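Cont'd.
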Amino acid sequence: MVLNSNLLESHTPTSREELWRFTPLAKLRGLHDLEVSLSSRVSLGASVEQPGLSVEIVDASKAPSTSSTNDLVSMRVRELSSKVLIVDIAQNAEIATPIYLTRTVESLDPEVSRTVIHLGANSRATVVVENTGSITLAEEIVITLDSGANLNFVSLQEWESDAVHLGHHHAIIGRDATFTSTVITLGGSLVRLLPTVEYAGPGASAELSGIYFATSGQHLEHRIHVDHNLPHAKSRVNYKGALSGDKARTVWFGDVFIRANAEGTDTYEVNRNLLLSDGARADSVPNLEIETGEIVGAGHASTTGRFDDEQLFYLESRGIPANIARQLVIRGFFLEIVSKLGLPQIEERIMTRIEAELEKASS
Amino acid sequence: MSTLEIKNLQVAVSTDEGMKQILRGVDLTIKSGETHAIMGPNGSGKSTLAYSIAGHPKYTITGGSVLLDGVDVLEMRVDERAKAGLFLAMQYPVEVPGVSVSNFLRTAATAIRGEAPKVRTWVGEVKEAMASLNMDPAFAERNVNEGFSGGEKKRHEILQMELLKPKIAILDETDSGLDVDALRIVSEGVNRVKDSHNIGIMLITHYTRILRYIKPDFVHVFAAGRIVEEGGAELAEKLEEKGYAEYVTA
């Protein structure tokens, strides 16, 4: 088994390559094409001011990248971004209110955006990236958690139906730090996100969750990569998706790599897909590569299927009509993850959008 | 006063080897307030009888009829049967992740009653019903049947029976997986709900144990897809002593 993210990309990818073979390259408007120039704009912004929080835009020359990357998107973003958004949370700071980073959109011309988020030792914060509107975007968000820091990171893709978004969220998690990431992808014509994790100290923990709902013509792709490069780190991955409508398409990869020195690793990943109609296609590929047996646990699960008839029968046998029973089951399917956001307003908004998508799909 | 009439019911399921006949002509009439125990060995078709009356899509009706107050049940969708007044307490209640018990109960009650129950009276109604089944109020916020113990699942079934107030309730192996204390609580719940709403009960069981708590008016012995002997409560005592051997070999 070859771990995908280890391949070096220094040329325009083609659909013959493992990393890109599922992605409809023609829809990318040149984001992947080294011949196409991308404009640089800091499209994320924060309006909050709180003690312990600093948000500033700096020249790229003053913000060198601290991690190496083999990802084409990251490489392009780093190369082409002239400015960088830096979100810094001071050590020991507890930012009680969520920090909303809101996307502004201008046009469909392809552009790059680079963001760096840093949490000082023992700090605590919630960061919500809100993506709405129409855009053609390649972005990188690098998140560093120092020792004992705790970040609840939420990435919302509520794009308009013509948006194209390639993104790489990379987290470097320090000793005893906790990174919780929830990726919610509902909008966009083509969204391809790479939530990746590496560890910088023992006792570090990553909980990566996500939901996606693809309707007719949408391509939603999530490629998770967790690099257990150190001993005694933990990871949990839980992504759930639903698909409805002709040519609705989702791709999910979960690569978990346990290196030879990573004894005491504790990892489990799961992906579940619910096919709500004919003509939709979900790919789900969990990969677990283990170089040491001295671990606490490692496992994975993947299911893709239609409604559970027994669940529907149970609900219908209590008088609940079939269409409402299906709504309850789908709502419940997503609520398992959405209810853990700790953000009631966002939860409500997401569930309302899911219900609207469902109605659109069934009409 | 309601009547469930099962006449010459024949049911098959599809298997890898083709259609397999399970019920071979079942005749049974249950009236409001009556308790009928259906007893028989494993594999005799007792659960098939329960699920085909409730309308599970796995079963194909090959003959006969089921009438509730003269109306053909077999023509109805699953939810329509529940609205007409049928209830099935399942042997293995199904987990529904992400759907809370309170949301589920309210949605079901709204469907059965034809309008959403008034919030104030509904909360009290649920609380009271849960308390009488010794259920912790926190239970309402858990997901339907998810991580429930055997006893909790069966109490949750009877809770639904109380709130949905059916005319006829079919209890499929409600005693299975229950310890003595849970069996007593669940049985008391069945008796209380039955008496207060004059429900007709079809009690499907393999063992006579539950009949110490829920007294049957009639006992029907089920074997090879049909009723082979009928009597009063004394028939259960005979089964307790002699088992099903004579019916299986017959």
